[in-house]
Amino acid sequence: MKEIKTLTTLDEIKAFSDPYRVQILRCLKQFGEPATVKQIADEMGEVPAKVHYHVKKLEKVGILELVYTKEINGIIAKYYSPTAKSFAIKNSDYES
Description:
By secondary structure, the protein is of the alpha+beta class. 43% of the residues lie in helices and 30% in strands. Strand 2 and strand 3 form a beta hairpin.
């Protein structure tokens, strides 16, 4: 895991700026280890389908990553983790 990841593309910034997704990242930071969508959903008091949608959006832009999978009772559990300890936003399109 990187110390800091700079978000530069509009897609990265848009994905990161969603308050619900920030809540997911805070939850993962609180766990201190990779977690499944189910674990995150339980901690947030949400349904896994809603969390899964947002986790996939964060994974697509490289803010979250699939760290490992584990088979539990015939089901493949996917464990996700942030790609950095903190994130910074810098978009050159808006610099003067």
